[in-house]
Write a structure and sequence with these properties.
- This protein is α/β, with parallel strands linked by helices and 181 residues long.
- The chain is built from five helices and seven strands.
- The chain has a seven-stranded mixed sheet, with helices on both faces.
- The model has no long low-confidence stretch (mean pLDDT 93).
Amino acid sequence: MRIIGGKFKSRRFNPPAKNWPTRPTTDFAKEGLFNILNNNIDFEETKMLDLFCGTGNHSYEFISRGCKEVTCVDKFYGCIKFVTATAKLLDIEEELNIVKADVFKFIAQTGAKYDYIFAGPPYALPNMDDLPNLIFKHDLVAENGWFVMEHNPNHNYEDHQNFDFSRNYGTTIFSFFEPRD
């Protein structure tokens, strides 16, 4: 895993491979996503939420680009331990709020609004298709904000009322959603 932009550009991290429950976003897909974000987001003014954070990859990218308020959520202890150690190594503990919790419970209880929400759930998650509905039901996306969900071609959200557009990078798809009146 490497950070592709900002002050930590080219920093590499090696999460433990044994029994690791994550599927890190490929550099190719991440570069495509951040090309879109770089042209549409003021990172320094963004409040970001990283759901199913895994290695914390997206959180580090945002902080590397100047984001000062990032919350990452995962329920797997190994992920939380890795993100905590990486935050300490990068000296970003002030910018990164690490939450060990079930993502669905967090969504229901947070009550906060975010300018950008990223979800990279396990593709086999049985209730993955509920995420866009839950995000908007609980009103988590700030005005002019985005919810972006990483998924594979087995899922399609084009008919969702909050769907904006999607981008495909091989078998990785990012669907973009925005609040509607």
